[in-house]
Amino acid sequence: MRVVIAEDSVLLRVGVQRLLADEGIETVAAVENGDDLLDAVTEHRPDLCVVDVRMPPTFTDEGLRAAIECRRRFPGLPVLVLSQYVEERYAVELLAGGASGVGYLLKERVADVKEFVDAVRRVADGGTSIDHEVITQLMVRSKKSPVDKLTPREREVLGLMAQGLSNTAIANTLVVSDGAVEKHVGNIFAKLGLEPSNSEHRRVRAVLAYLDS
């Protein structure tokens, strides 16, 4: 796997690069601003971009805007966004396009090496990995959305799906059977109006439908 890292903090940028190297993941470019991210992606065509939301010069949303532009130029480019805080509108904006291969994690998750590396691989493979804190806040603030039709347990399952967990992993987390999780997932698809499709993965579509609400 070939990765481009965009992070203005030298310590975090080098730290992520070394962490990925230990897992056999090559960093082809490590930059500190959005413009350099665009140049690096154009040059290297990486398998994944790991991007900080706030970068120079204003430290507001430069990284997020650069990530969205990268995905516009190179449709399907997997992007894993790192943020210091939960910023819901950034997560929704990144995911609203309906494409797979996106993630949004709080930077503190990098300290959990296994969790971070799992997220990197999952997003690079076209899945999603949304921080549970982001999911929690979005669920609290969402109103009049299809998700309102879900039961508390189905919402819990959807939140775990958004984190990228498989049915078996969800079953282990909730201490229920695989069959029970499959039933909940089926109910979620039905209540969100997600029919089987050859072009999009319904698990990803369920997460995106929720975040776009």
Automatic annotation (TrEMBL):
Q: Is DNA-binding given among the entry's keywords?
A: yes
Read off the Pfam families from this record: GerE, Response_reg
At the top level, the lineage of the source is Bacteria
InterPro entries for the chain = CheY-like_superfamily, NreC/VraR/RcsB-like_REC, Sig_transdc_resp-reg_C-effctor, Sig_transdc_resp-reg_receiver, Tscrpt_reg_LuxR_C, WalR-like
Q: Which residues form the Response regulatory domain?
A: 2-122
SUPFAM superfamilies from the UniProt entry: C-terminal effector domain of the bipartite response regulators, CheY-like
Instruction: List, alphabetically, the CDD domains matched.
Output: LuxR_C_like, REC_NarL-like
Instruction: Give the UniProt keywords, A-Z.
Output: DNA-binding, Phosphoprotein, Transcription, Transcription regulation
Which residues belong to any copy of the HTH luxR-type domain? Answer: 143-213
Q: Which Gene3D superfamilies match?
A: 3.40.50.2300
| Residues bearing the modification 4-aspartylphosphate | D52
**Keyword Lipoprotein on entry:** no
Output the PANTHER family linked to this UniProt entry.
TRANSCRIPTIONAL REGULATORY PROTEIN NARL-RELATED (PTHR43214:SF24), TWO-COMPONENT RESPONSE REGULATOR (PTHR43214)
Write down what this protein is called: Response regulator transcription factor
Q: Which organism is it from?
A: Lentzea sokolovensis
